[in-house]
Structures are given as C-alpha cells and as structure tokens.
Amino acid sequence: MKDIKTKQKVQMIKTKDSKANIKHFIKQQTLHTRNMDKDTYKESISSNANVQATNSISKKAKQTFVESSYRATKFIKEKRNERKFKKQNPLPNRNEIHPQKASYISKAKQTVVNKVNASKVKQTSEKIISTPVVQNTTKAVKTTYNVIKKSVSSIGALFSFGTGIILLLVLVLFIGTFGVLAQDGGSNSEIVSLSEEVIAYENTIRKYAKENDIEDYVSLIQAIMMQESGGKGNDPMQSSESGYNTKYPRVPNGITEAEYSIEVGVKTISDCIKKANVKDPSDTEHIYLALQGYNYGNGYIEWALTNFGGYSKYNAQLFSDNKKQELHVSGYGDPLYVDHVMRYVGITFRGGTNPNFNNLEAWVTKNPYAKSGLYGQCTWFAWGRFYELYGYDPGFTGNGWDCVDELLAAHRDKFERADTPKAGAVFSGIGKNHVGIVLKVDGENITIQDGNYDGKTNTFEEAKTDWRTNTYTLSELRRRYGGIVFADPK
Asked: Which of 232, 260, 345, 472 has the most CB atoms in a 10 Å sphere around its CB?
C-alpha cells in the first residue's frame, strides 16, 4: 500500500508540474507576441512598405534562423540529457524532472511564427495568391536560399533533428514576399508627347543609332532624352558620366556639346541593350533591364540578371538603396526610371509587338478577368494588352462585344467610336462575342492581336500561348466577326 501511494504521489506531482511549466512558457510567449506586434505596427507606419520589404526581410530571416538554431541546439542537448537521466533513474523525484522538454518545441515554433509576423510588411495594396505568381518566384527563392544557407552554419543539424519546418516557414514567407517584390516587370505609365526640342534632334539620333546598329530603337532613345533633359541644354542625353565620354570631364553636365552628348548617349544605351540580351524592339522585358542600366550603370544589369533573372521595379529600388548605403549618399539614380522613360514612347513600341506576361499588373493583379479566373478569354487578353500599351485601366469588365462601348464610357476624352481603325484601337465584334487590339494599319491591311483561339477558359500557363497576331483587310475582318466597331485613340 505504501508503494502504491508513493507512485500516485509522484505521478500527481509530475502532471501538475508539467502543466504549470507549459502554462508559464505560454504566458511569457503571449506577452512577447503582443510587444512584437506593437513594434511591427509602428514600423509599418513609419516607412514605405515596398522599401521596407526589400531592406529588412533578409535581416529578419537571418535573425530568425540564428535564434531558431540556438533554440533547437539547446533542445537537442536537453533531449540527450533526459535520455541519460531516464536510464539512470527510472523513477525520478520532483527535483530531477525536466519540465522544459515538453515546452521547448512549442516555444521554438511559436518564436519562429512571431519572428515571421514581425518581419512581414504590408505589401502592395493587393495580396497575390495565385498560380502565376508562385510559378514566377523560382529564381528569387533560389537567391534567397543561398543567402540563408550562407548565414546559418547549422542548417544540416536542424534538418537532422526534425526542425526543418523552421526553414520551410521562412521560405514560405520569402515566396509570398518575393512573388510580389521580384516579378513585376511591367511599365505602367500613361503616354506623354515628345517636346519640340527632342523631335528636332531626330536626325542626329538616327545617325548615331545607325552607326551602333540600333536604328530600330530611335523612338526609345528619344524617350531617354525626353526624360533626361527634355532636349534642352548642352548635354541633352546626360551622358557626361558615361565611360564612353573621352573628351569632357566625367561629372554631371561635363559635356558641353549637344551632338557629342547624343553620340555618347547612343553608344551607352547600345551597350546596355547588348548586355541586357535584348532580342528586338518587341522584347520589352529586356528593354526595361537595359533602360534601368542606362540610369544606374551597367553594373545593375549584371546584378539583376544574377540575383533576380532580370529587371523588376522592386529590385531596382533595392539596388538604389544598397548603393545609398554603400556610398553614404542620400540618393542614387531613379528606381522608377523605366516608367518615366516609357511614358514618352509610342504605344506599339512601349507595349511591344508581343505581350509581356511578367507584367503582373496587366495580366494578374489589376486585370478584372484574372480575378474572375477567366484566363485565356479574349476579354482577359484584350484588357492586359491595353494596359501594357496605354498604362491604365480600359474600363471594360463585360462581354467582348460590349468592350468598345465600355471603353468609350470610361475614356470618352481619349477615344472615339469609328468604323475604320487606327493603330492602338480596340475592336468589338458585332455578330460574334469577341474583342481584340489593333496593332498596325497599313493601307487596307489591318494587323490585330486577340486571344481565346481554343474557345475556352485556361490556366495562366495555357493562356500565355492562346493568342495570335494576324493581318486582314477591313472587309475580311468584318466578315469574320459579322460586323465590327472600333474605339480609336483621338
């Protein structure tokens, strides 16, 4: 009887003690969570969300791993000690019990969750939880993983003892963040006309563009000059600091000869186009990389390709911030240079002859047909191409044959109803429920671009191939759709 009572007493003590300790740890951790949430809220108010995301997330991830590694190592030691203790003492007394065993795992996991919450920042106004974003994050995740791998020496130990869940949690955070931060390759600014000063330099620009084998990019060079100077001053291309300047001081406005400024500027952008692997004027994805390289210098091009696979607005911001810290200056270049230049380029050049499906605003985040899951429909395609060409919402959300009317209702100051098209027009079929974009008008020949050739809704990956560029006469186009109406740009 005495032995039974003793056994019951020990069991009661063990149970009570274990619950008390777990409660103790949970209470402390809850208080810690509230403090972290409060700090995060203050931080999110005091800084720009996009910049904060790119600057702080890597540091937070490293801190999370270091702390997680420490806690996991400590747990391992406790676990080993406990095993030794059990072998030596089958019936421990109250003073020899290790209540931390039950709580270390939950505490470590909870700490990781808190760290993740603390490092999250409010991203751009919409969360993207969609297949296209996840599919476009591979390169960013690989880059992030390499950073994490270098920063933590005990990742192998973490996996060995079943704590790889910690790494998984942080990688999920990086996927969610970099899916937005690293993959928007679009230029989304409204079109602005060139100045008379820039237009006056067209022949000079064409001369040096031809010498450097980029004559097809004259309109792009004009847009660069427009952004740099508006065509005014003795250094209209603002190319004094370029390595190709061998006659004047390499300081801002060091060049005092306008034609030489153009010669140097054209050589510089030609070099950027080559280093960015631009295939042709329709390759907007690589053109954006070249443009940002003109602003930052060629070092950006190599950096962006190595770490992110190309240009994005957010890695452009990150590069600028890194350079400001490295050089101890208050500003470095223009992170929005691509948007600022492309607003001066004509619609067919700025939107490219082919769609850029890395422009997530056009095809995923702002496209109302994407939100409805209508990938591959003609309306989804026409909305995305319009946004790439013009940089704003066309205003249509209904059926294909209603799109012209909806566009005119939303932008009557910019478009007008017509029976014959202009380049950049939107057309709606009358006899068939269809909508598309007019890319080019050459006499009787009309080049259009439209989607949904398989007649069904697709996945995003399938939709990226379900479109065509065709050329018809106006009469052929009318017969094809049982009548047609255009919304022409004014």
From this structure: 345
* pLDDT at residue 240, rounded to an integer: 96
The Cα 265–Cα 204 span in angstroms is 12
Q: Would you say 172 and 164 are in contact if contact means Cβ atoms under 8 Å apart?
A: no
Cα 323 to Cα 104: distance, rounded to the nearest angstrom: 41
pTM attached to this predicted model: 0.55
- Token reading at 25: 């740890």
Structure tokens given for 425: 């027009």
Mean pLDDT by 10 residues, the chain (490 residues): 48 47 43 41 44 48 53 66 62 41 45 46 39 51 50 47 52 48 59 92 96 95 96 96 95 95 97 95 89 95 95 93 94 94 80 82 94 95 94 94 97 95 95 95 93 95 96 95 95
Nearest to 412 by CA among 404, 420, 424: 404
Provide the mean pLDDT of the chain. 76
Distance between CA 26 and CA 107 in Å, rounded? 8
Residues 385, 447 contacting (CB under 8 angstroms): no
User: In the structure encoding, which two tokens stand for residue 461, read together?
Assistant: 């990956």
Q: How far is CA 385 from CA 24, 365, 398, 450, in A?
A: 59, 14, 16, 9
- Residue 292 near residue 185 (C-beta atoms within 8 A): no
Residue 167: alpha-carbon gap to chain centroid: 23
Whether 281 contacts 353, CB under 8 Å: yes
The per-residue pLDDT for range 90-126, each reduced to its tens digit, is 544 433 434 443 444 444 445 444 544 444 433 433 4
Question: How far is the CA of 489 from the CAs of 19, 85, 415, in angstroms?
Answer: 73, 82, 4
Q: How far is Cα 449 from Cα 428, in angstroms, rounded to an integer?
A: 12
Closest CA to 390 of 431, 438, 430: 438
User: Tokens 């991203």 correspond to what residue?
Assistant: 123
User: How much is the pLDDT for 285?
Assistant: 86
